[in-house]
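Handout, section B. The chain below has 346 residues.
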Amino acid sequence: MFKIVWDKENNGVVLTPDANGDALTVSPRPVFYEELDLLEFDKKVGWKYPKSIEPLLWACDRRYFYQGEFVAEAKGGNIFDNVELVVPDEFRGLKLMPIDVRKMISANKRGLFLIEHEALQFISETYRTYSLKQIRTKAKANEEIDWSLIAVNQEKKTKTKYAVVKEDCDSFDIMPFDLATEQNKTVYLNTKIEKFIVSFSGGKDSQVVLDLVSRVLPPEDFVVIYSDTGLEIPPSLELFEKTKELYQEHYQNLNFYLTKNPQDTVELWDKFGTPSRVHRWCCTFTKTAPLYRYLKEISGKDKQPNVLTFEGVRAEESSKLVLIQEIGKGLKIDYLNENRNYNNVA
């Protein structure tokens, strides 16, 4: 597990396995000139900075850091009151230089390499575990032996969870799941997953997940789904279309879908009230329900299909999301919308 520390010399951050007590407790986010303009750092505290495409400094929550030093904090602020900028005297009139992103990537090359390949391996193993496609293909060349059916029948007889396992010379067998795990066997579970999905929002997390999954899974074995809540800003929808165009140039069999509630979202606000942290009806009506309907449509079945979703979820997004495991049944869907017949990989 890598931790994040400041790279003061390059005004960046560095991934390290040993932070020696200096690790940041909150993942910093890059800050661009537009945010500084919005808060009027130039007018209120005399900061000088270029309007560059590169970020200028970092923020942990509402605290700003430059070259690893705390330089400002934004307090208060709402539709009625302006934000108060608290800046130490020595950092008034601060002149900011853009972050050298290439240099920062180079400094994190080893850590990023390990994280990337760990993620690729996890996706590959998850796909192999939950997809019976390979077993069915092998079975046809092996006198039509349906190993998944044998495992299911054995489970019914013994009341013990069984799994199909891969043996030497690409042969298959069945054994109790716990024993297969103990012996570090390649396991295939009898989950009857009918569809693999990449949940796409256009944000950095979903962009990374789509890139990783597309490098591991066959393009015809998964779909990309974007949920239009009806309140998406135009650049978000444009990004979805551009991403679709880019990926389909390389993967012609990869399908992209956009789901949307047919009812106008503003009308739903009139009916159910303004969404809030306590009154969280919006995800159910604008994301989950349209997704369920669309999955039934593209699967061509009357009942809800079993699907496995790859999602990018960071622990700091919510106190409840911290408890989410890497893989499990209905993890995030349960958190948002009670129990549903879904699998989720976070």
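Note. The chain has a mean pLDDT of 82. Compare this with the example in section A.
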